[in-house]
Amino acid sequence: MDLELLKELCDAPGVPGHEENIRKIVKRELKELSDEIIIDPMGNAIFMINGKSGATILVDAHMDEVGFIVSHVEESGLIRVIPLGGIDPKLFYGQRLTIWGENSIEVTVGAAPPHIRKDGDSAPEIDDCIIDSGINYKKLQTLVKVGDPVTFSTKCIIDNQRVLSKALDDRVGLFVAIETVKKINKKNLKCQLVISASVQEEMGLRGARIINSRVNPDFSIALEGTVSNDLPGVPNHKTLAALGRGPEIRISDKYLIADRDLNDFIQKLAKSKKINYQLTAKNAGGTNSTAFQVTGSGSKATVLSVPVRYLHSPSSVCLLKDIKSTIELLSLTISNIHKFKS
After folding, report:
1. Mean pLDDT, 10 residues at a time, over the chain (342 residues)?
2. Which runs of E-coded beta strand occur in 228-328?
3. Can you say whether residue 94 is alpha, beta or left, with left for phi > 0 and alpha for psi between -120 and 50 degrees?
């Protein structure tokens, strides 16, 4: 696995509507392996990797990460932002951020010292927080403007068989997609493979909604970093996926009932090669798989995910062994999809 690529993907900024930096990386990696590349009006990048014949399988990972945009710059030099995607205000308070204007600058979310806060004070809403750069207003006007994207400042660390980073939702999915395309033998493909790097998933699956009508897949797999809640004090039935047990094959979430025949097919392939996997059924969350299942002519849809602790936070955690197993299972699925029988 190209771990330098994973770090590059995680460290690059790419909030909803500003995915261009991520798109450049994915395009660079897949350009020579694709027969055709389409960039649609929303900014989705679609890579056509044509096999000899057969059904069309769409594999998607979204480029955007949860983040913020600048909404106001005050004459005092303080800055306000609004969130893009679901972010817990308690995780925001006191964090360091990067504003990606013409030149990036580091800022901090202003936090009242604990000795002057009242017991029981809750974290303020994100758009009520002050963002402090310490830069005077005249200079700040040349550096920051309304609409500039903002991300957490944490950098990706890969060591000791783990990854610690922001944006693992869904840079880990993009990494799995890229590594899988490099791994499979295109000449032996008995399907039409399409990889999509989609935009604005965190804002309501917006990019995915227009991909199906262009691709018309028979099968679709959304790659994700999924919630791993395997923590002290959490009941077993609420842990969902767990680190170290392989990729999640999703049965359901708030908006999806995955195709049971496709899930059974993937499970049989995993068992045949002794690849660990885990099944999750839940009624929360959602992925682009929902859009691929019900838009256009529809498709047999499911989700394949790498378990990640602390999603949508400045520092999420996943394991390299789970990433590797996800690549192996996805490669196996694509290479054998022509054998699928419902």
Report:
1. 98 98 98 96 95 89 98 95 94 93 94 60 84 94 96 97 97 98 89 97 94 94 95 89 97 96 98 98 93 95 98 97 98 96 82
2. 248-252, 278-281, 300-308, 316-319
3. left
HSE-up (13 A, CA, CB side) for residue 265: 22
82 shares a domain with 60: no
Question: In this structure, what are the phi and psi dihedrals at residue 125, rounded to the nearest 5 degrees?
Answer: -60, 155
Say if 301 falls within a structural domain: yes
Same domain, 289 and 214: yes
Domain range enclosing 80: 67-152
At 161, list the tokens.
């068989």
What pTM, to 2 d.p., does this model score?
0.95
Domain count, the chain: 2
List the catalytic residue out of 201, 202, 248, 328: 201
pLDDT at 50: 81
Phi and psi torsions of 208, nearest 5°: -65, -25
Residue 201 annotated to the active site: yes
Residue 157 in domain: no
Contacts with 6 (C-beta within 8 Å, 6 or more apart), sequence order? 156, 158, 163, 171, 172, 175, 323
Q: For position 53, what pLDDT does the model report? A: 81
**C-alpha to C-alpha distance for 56 and 105, rounded to whole angstroms:** 44
Supply the pLDDT for residue 114.
Answer: 60
Among residues 121, 152, 183, which one ends one of the domains? Answer: 152
User: For residue 268, which amino acid is it?
Assistant: K
HSE at residue 341, side-chain half, CA atoms within 13 A, is: 1
* CB 190, CB 54: distance < 8 Å: yes
